[in-house]
């Protein structure tokens, strides 16, 4: 039986889109394709985009100065304690004697020969009196023996005395003469001991210390007084070993202690370095009564003449890694060079002890903004 076309249900008819609606979607798709193609064609027809030019490094404009040699004062710093120019230790030469009197105190100014202390001299004075009596007796015996010798000599001349008698009288004179000389030497010894019971100042000065009291018993060799000879003090300046070669006796020295300034002179340079300090000792003589006392600590500047150095403006010196340096112009590049600063000059320039040679072109203005190897442009050379 032939197939017959059966009409669809009303539900199927509702699900199937209508013809006008399908054509609408087809047109929208064609328009989208055309738009995409047009954009692609426009891009192909437009000129290619130009890539941005590569960036060029910034060139800093700087000024330069020529490193020039200059003769500058050589000032050597030093420091150290104030010490006695010469400290005299006055001791007691006799032991076992009582100290009867002490006439000075610490800080007193004394004159040469002034009595400082006295020991009990009663026993020694009695010994001296006995020595004097013995000498008087010996002198009388010598005089008598000489008179006897003269009488024997006259008798020998008249042949009334034996030769043996003459020899005996001559021997007696020699014996008495020797005894007198011995007694005189003994008296001198006692007199010296008597003088040692009096302690006197061997020179003018200031008493730094007194170590005995009245009533104490003397001990041979004991230090009784410490005397600052002539009241003079000096600075025992300590100097770096590399600076010692430039220091000579007679050079001027400015010594500072707080607000006080004292002018001195180099007296002597110690011939060796004490210990392992690597510091030399320079003895600086100070004027009388400088207002400085032994034990104080002072600073000093030694005028060691003049030296030749290289000077650059202060603005040319920069610090890299905590060390001073300058930039030297090499062609159109700034090259970092380490330097050693010696001193600041009166016009504000810096004296360079090492790292530069005369004629180097040093960058002044703009040095603080540079790094090693930077390209620079010189704006104004000085």
Automatic annotation (TrEMBL):
Residues 235-301 form the CusB-like beta-barrel domain. Belongs to the membrane fusion protein (MFP) (TC 8.A.1) family. Keywords: Membrane, Transmembrane, Transmembrane helix. The lineage of its organism: Bacteria, Pseudomonadati, Pseudomonadota, Alphaproteobacteria, Acetobacterales. NCBIfam families: RND_mfp (TIGR01730). InterPro entries: Beta-barrel_RND_2 (IPR058792), RND_pump_MFP (IPR006143). This is Efflux RND transporter periplasmic adaptor subunit. The chain crosses the membrane at residues 25-44.
